[in-house]
Amino acid sequence: MAHTFLKMAETGVEPVPHQEILEVAAVSAAAAKSVNERSRLVDLAEVI
After folding, report:
1. Which of 2, 5, 8, 17 is most buried, judged by most C-beta within 10 A?
2. pLDDT at 20
3. What is the pLDDT of residue 2?
4. How many angstroms separate the first and last alpha carbons of the chain?
5. Confidence at residue 13, expressed as pLDDT on a 0 to 100 scale
6. Could you tell me if residue 3 is inside a domain?
7. Residue (of 33, 17, 16, 19) closest to 44 by Cα position
8. What is d(CA 4, CA 2) in angstroms, rounded to the nearest whole number?
9. pTM (2 decimals)?
């Protein structure tokens, strides 16, 4: 992971597209919210 970060810092190119990073973060946030709300289905629009 450190190697990937250093390569990104040197080249200025993200190893994963920014949109994909945001989508993964939104899924993780929705999952956490679902767990906190007794397994309620959480739409991604609620956490974006």
Report:
1. 8
2. 93
3. 87
4. 26
5. 92
6. no
7. 33
8. 5
9. 0.71
Overall size of the chain counted in residues: 48
Q: Which two tokens stand for residue 29?
A: 């946030």
Tokens standing for residue 27: 């899924």
**What's the number of domains the chain is made of?**
1
Q: Are 14 and 23 in contact (CB under 8 A)?
A: no
Structure tokens at 14: 């993200």
Segment 1-48, tens digit of pLDDT: 789 889 999 999 999 898 998 999 999 999 999 999 999 999 999 998
Euclidean distance between CA atoms 21 and 26, whole angstroms = 9
Is 30 domain-assigned?
A: yes
